[in-house]
Amino acid sequence: MNPATKSLTERRAWNALAAHHQGVRELHLRQLFADDPKRGERMTAEAVGIYLDYSKNRVTDETLKLLLQLADESGLRERIALPREERESGDAGRGQGDERASN
Q1: Higher pLDDT, 48 or 2
Q2: How many other CB atoms are there within 10 angstroms of residue 63's CB atom?
Q3: Cβ proximity of 54 and 67 under 8 Å
Q4: CB burial class (10 A; 0-12, 13-18, 19+) of residue 66?
Q5: DSSP per residue, 49-78
Q6: How high is the pLDDT of residue 96?
Q7: CA angle centred on 22, ends 19 and 28, rounded to 5°
Q8: Three-class SS state of 40
Q9: 99 pLDDT band (50/70/90 cuts)?
C-alpha cells in the first residue's frame, strides 16, 4: 500500500501514539501540574478569537511531538486550506506552484 494511502491506524506515528498512550493513561493531572508548574501557560494556544487550553488533558510534550508526527505523515498541512489572511494578501505560496494563493 502506498504510504499516502495508508489508513490512519497503519501509520508508524499512530502506533507510536498507541504505545505512548499506555504510559500516560494512568497519569493524574495533579502530577502533571506538579512536575511542570508552567503547564497551564505552556499548553495553551490562542488564534482568531479561539482559546485552546489543553493543559487539563493527559497530554505531554511527547504526546504533542507524536501528534505532530502523525499530522506530517498524514499530509495534514497540505490538506488544510490557507488561512484567510494569506489568501487575501495574495502572496502566500507565490513561486512555489501553489495555485491556491492566487485564487
Answers
A1: 48
A2: 17
A3: no
A4: buried
A5: TEEEE-TTSS--HHHHHHHHHHHHHTTHHH
A6: 47
A7: 140
A8: helix
A9: very low
All three cell numbers of 88: 487575501
- Give the global pTM: 0.68
Within 10 angstroms of residue 6's Cβ, the number of other Cβ atoms is 14
Residue position matching grid coordinates 485564487:
103
Indicate the helix (H) or strand (E) that contains 91.
Answer: none
pLDDT digits (tens, 9 = 90+) for 35-93: 999 999 999 999 999 999 999 999 999 999 999 999 999 888 887 765 666 555 655 44
| Whole-angstrom distance, CA of residue 12 vs CA of residue 45 | 27
C-alpha 10: how far from its chain's center? 18
Mean pLDDT of 7-19: 94
Query: Alpha carbon of 19 to those of 4, 16, 54, 55, 69: distances in Å?
Result: 22, 5, 20, 21, 14
CA separation (Å) from 100 to 22, 29, 72, 73, 103? 41, 42, 20, 22, 5
Q: Which helix (H) or strand (E) holds 34?
A: helix 29-35
